[in-house]
Amino acid sequence: MSVTSIVRHRLFWPCVTLALLCAVNVFFNHNFFALEVRNGALYGSVIDILNRAAPLMLVAMGMTLVIATRGIDVSVGATVAIAGAVVAVMIGGTLVIKDGVQSYVANFPMPLAIIAALAVALLCGLWNGALVAGAGMQPIIATLILMVAGRGVAQLVTEGQIVTIYYEPFFFIGNGFLFGIPFALYIVAAVLLILLYLTQRTALGLFIQAVGLNPTAARFSGISARALVLWVYGFCGVTAGIAGLIITSNVKSADGNNAGLAMELDAILAVALGGTSLDGGRFSLIGTLIGALIIQTLTYAIYSLGVPPEINLVVKALVVFTVCLIQSERLRSMLFTHTARIGEKS
Amino acid sequence: MLKSRRNLLSAVVIGLIASAVAMPSFAAEKKLTLGFAQVGAESEWRTANTTSIKEAAKAAGIELKFSDAQQKQENQIKAIRSFIAQKVDVIGFAPVVTTGWDTVLKEAKAAKIPVILTDRSIETKDDSLYVTMIGSDFTEEGRKAGQWLLDNYKAQGDVNIVELQGTVGSAPAIERQKGFMEVIKANPKFKVTRSQTGDFTRAKGKEVMEAFLKADPNINVLFAHNDDMAIGAIQAIEAAGKKPGKDIIIVSVDAVKGAFEAMMAGKLNVTVECNPQLGPQLMDIVKQVKAGKQLPKRINTKEGIFPMETAAKEFPNRKY
Question: Which residue of A15, A197, A268, B190 is surrounded by the most CB atoms within 10 Å?
Fold first, then answer.
C-alpha cells in the first residue's frame, strides 16, 4: 500500500487522532502504557479506558446502523437507564447478615432478570422503529419522545431511589475478568463479530446502505425498507440495554436519574468521529469503535492531567472541534492547495 | 333544568367552602396549623425530608397542610397564597429558587403570618419578610470533615489528598470544598493534590478515582463531597489492589445507609451527616415562633459525624 492510499483510507484520521491523544497522555503520565497483573487481572490505564469505553462502544455500534439508515436515536441514554433499572429491581438482592456472615439473595433468578431487561430494551428500540418506519415520523422527533419519557419510566421502576444490588454473580458482567481481560470487552467483541459477519458476509450491510442512500430506490429494488428500519432501531435498543447491564453491574446499583445521561450525544459523536456520515449510507463499525475510544481517552486525559473541573467541558469541546476540523475533507483540501500554491511561488 | 342544576352546584360549592373555612377555625382552638410548601420529590434526600416533616408534625400535635410544588415556583407561590387565605398559624417552605418571593411574603406579613424557610435561603432586601431559616450548613460540613482528618490522621510525612467534588457550581460542592480547605490550611503537610468533579454519582466517582490512582501512586486520603461518589471510589481503590479505609483514608459527607454499610465493612473511615430529617426541629421552631420568642435569622440543623467505629451501632437508626 502506498503512502497516499494509507492517508486516503477513511480510518486514517481517526487513528491519527487516537494516537495523538495517547501521546498527550504519555507525556503527562509516563506509565500510561504500563500494564501489570494485579489480583490475576491486567491493570493499567489502557485497560481502564477500554473497560470504561465498553458501554459507549456498544451503544455507538447500534447507533452506527441507525445512522446508516439515515436515522438517529437520541433515546439510547434513557434505554440504558431503563434496562439498568429493570435488572436492578429484579435482581435486587438483600444483604443478610447471619452470625456475622454476609450472604446475598436475589429476588428473581439472574438469567431471567437479564433476559427481561434486554427484552424491555428491545421493546424500547422497536417502539422507536415503529414510530419512524410505521408512522413515518422524523427520527429525531420520534426518539425524542422516549428520551424524555424514558427517564420517567426508569424512575418509576426504581421508585425514584438509587437501587443497590446485593448479588455477587451479577457483578461479573461489569467488573469481572476472563483470562486477565475485562469481561465487558468480550461482550463488545462478540457484538462486533456478529455485526461484521452480518454486514460484510451477508447482504444486510448492503441493504442498510441502500436504505440510507435512497429509501425509495431501495424499496423499488425489493428491499422491505420498513421492516429493516424497524429492526435496526430494535437492535440499537438491545445494544443500549446491554450497555445498561454493564454500567449497572459496574457500580452495583441503578440510578434512574444519572445512568447513561447524555450518552446519546457521546454515541453520535463516536459515530461521527469514526467517519460515518450523518447523512446515512456508508458506515464503518471499526471507525465507530475508534471514535468511542477517542472520547474515552480524552476523558481520561482530562482526569489525569488535573484540568480544573469547571473547564472540563470546554477542553473536551475544543479537542472535538479540532478533531472534526482535521477530519473535514474540504478544509484539508483547502489547506493543501494553499500550501501547494505557496510552494509554487517560492 | 340547566339553571337549576347550576344553582345546585353553586349551593354545594358554597357549602363546601363554608365548611372548609369553618373547619380550621374550629381546629385552631386546639392545635397549631402549619402550612408547608415543599419543593417536590426530586431526590431520595427530599423524600426523607418530606417524611420527616409529616411524622414530626403528627408527633408534635401540629396540624399540617402540605403542598408539593413539583419543582415550580408558581405552584409554591399559589400554595403560600392559599395558606394565607386559610389563615394558618405559621407558613413554612423550602424555596425552589432564591429570588422572586418578595410580593407573596409581603402578603403573608400583612396577614401577620410568620414564615420559616427550610433547607434553602432566599435573596431579599427586606429580612423582616421571614422569621428564620433552618437548614444544613454545607460549609460547616466541609469543616467537620477537615477537622476529623486533622485530628485522626496519624502517619508521618506529607499527606496527599484527592478530592471528588460534587456537581460543578452547586452550593454543596462549593461550600463543602470551602469549609474543608479552611480547616486543613492550618497544617501545611496536608495538601490537596488532585481535584475533579464526580457529579455526585457512583459511576463518575469510580471513573475519576480510577484515573487518579493510575496517574498518582501516592494518594493518602480521599475527600468525597458525598457518599455515593465515595462508594464508587471504594470500588476503584479495591480494583487497584489497595485497601480502602487503610491504605487510603476516606472522608465523605451525607451519612446515607450505603455509607454505613461501607463503614461496617471497614472500607470508609468517616461520614459527616447532612440531615434531611429537620422535621422535629422545625416543629420546635414553629412552637417557639408562635409563643413569640426571638429567633436567630439562621438556625443550623443538628448534624452529627459518624466515624467507622460507631457505624454498626448507628446503622439500625438510619432512615435514609
Answer: A268
